[in-house]
Amino acid sequence: MIKRSYHQYCALAKALDVVGERWTLLILRELITGPKRYKDLVGALPGMGTNLLATRLKELEESRLLERRPLSTHAGVFVYQLAYRGKKLGPALQELARWGFALLGQAEHDETFRPHWAISFLYGAFDAKAAEGLNETYQFIVGPETIQIQVHGKKMNVLQEAAPKPDLTFTLEEQTLIEIIGRQLTFSAALDRKKIQTIGDTPVLQHFFKIFGTRPGEEKNSWVTLG
Amino acid sequence: MIKRSYHQYCALAKALDVVGERWTLLILRELITGPKRYKDLVGALPGMGTNLLATRLKELEESRLLERRPLSTHAGVFVYQLAYRGKKLGPALQELARWGFALLGQAEHDETFRPHWAISFLYGAFDAKAAEGLNETYQFIVGPETIQIQVHGKKMNVLQEAAPKPDLTFTLEEQTLIEIIGRQLTFSAALDRKKIQTIGDTPVLQHFFKIFGTRPGEEKNSWVTLG
DNA sequence: CCGCATCCTCGGCGATACTG
DNA sequence: CAGTATCGCCGAGGATGCGG
After folding, report:
1. Which end of chain A has fewer surrounding CB within 10 Å, N or C?
2. Do B11 and A103 touch (CB under 8 A)?
3. Which residues of chain B lie closer than 8 angstroms to A223, CB-CB?
4. How much is the mean pLDDT over chain A?
């Protein structure tokens, strides 16, 4: 069983040989928020056949993007976690999500949603310049899920485990989060209407607004110049 | 004919709905260096069925990532060029290539190569910090192909058309380029052995070495933190 | 029940021939 | 030259089975 390849001596093609096939990047997205069990992945990837998931996990382990580790608390149970090479894909995922951010309209009825996918939304809203000089941790509690991100030195990181003391904690319902992403509700309005409970100091909240508050529109981009 | 989708309300999944299918990102890679004709794309994408190429081009035009434009000089001939939305994918392609850079070994015999693919290699070698404060244009003439890149403000851009006066021009054979990428030959050694002809001032050449000279190894990366 | 493996069907993909 | 048509194959998706 030889793996399909583009057979091109090109860094981009090589990357796509490893992570370019269907579902692969979404599996890695799931692991950004920490190690996950097989059943968690099945639950977060509706439409994906379980056989295909098992195959992809094996491929990703062979490619050394992730590791399969026995869960100490439950015998016979395993978790999948990002290995070094998988973690290094972060900037690429971040930029892809940043681009896809512009394609996000309102949620359709046939679309699934998981609170931690809001991270890809935050990647899009993140303003690196506004984050300069700050070093803060933000926590989101959305139903059963807790997400933590750290803003530090123009970078935004996802924390895999609970920070000892986040600078800011938001508690909100999943539906509220969906409405904010879909622009039916602004973050400020949700705060005003008590749909978000906040723990943290006012200046930190102002930092958060500065960093994630503005929706980047279609601004000029010059990575390719027309001469 | 309804398009396949992940049906997830997630920025990354939305991005992959548009550019996640086979060959799509490689088509866009081809257009980074400027508008291309259908035959150019066929030539640069061996293994891809021409029917599939035509389908992808239509999809990408509908998604407004590229535009099909009649070539003024030849009646009935069209070129495909990146549209605004396609250009905005640049940072994502750059980060993906940067990641794939580590997977580049020596060229295999069954691998194809085109000189402009070296851009994805340069993405990987690019040191943003070393580029700070500079604004220079480098030109590579490799056989029939000419590639131009601009380094400006911690960013590396690809120029689609000839810069009026590049600060530095390298002329080399395709085989030399392949050997440099495969680490069988260092850039310096190639210069010493007259395998690369250079036009430009010495300080500019030193800048170039500073920006692209060091091969980033497996350095620590903390975009995901373990707690 | 969880973590896969097997089976089967269908559609996307790859190669080539064909047409304006 | 720029696509379109055709066909065979394999990867993807869904259901089910099975061992720990």
Report:
1. N
2. yes
3. 87-88, 90-91, 94, 155, 157-158
4. 91
Q: For residues B193 and B175, is the Cβ–Cβ distance under 8 A?
A: no
Q: What is the pTM of this model?
A: 0.93
Q: What is the pLDDT of residues A166-223, one digit of tens each?
A: 999 999 999 999 999 999 999 999 999 999 999 999 999 999 999 998 665 544 444 4
Strand D neighbours (CB under 7 Å) are A 4, 21-23, 47-52, 55, 76; B 4, 37-39, 49-51, 54, 57-58, 68, 77-78
Percent over 70 (pLDDT), chain A: 93
Q: Which nucleotide is nearest to B50 (CA to C1')?
A: D3
Q: Which residue is nearest to nucleotide C14 (CA to C1')?
A: B49
3-state helix, strand, coil in chain B (%, to 5): 40, 20, 35
Mean pLDDT of B116-134: 95
Question: What region does A206 belong to: left with phi over 0, alpha with psi -120 to 50, or beta?
Answer: alpha
Which single residue has its CA nearest the C1' atom of nucleotide D15?
Answer: A49
Task: Pull the structure tokens for residue B189.
Answer: 């050694």
B81, closest residue in chain A (CA to CA): A226
Q: Which of B180, B174, B149, B171 is nearest to B162 (CA)?
A: B149
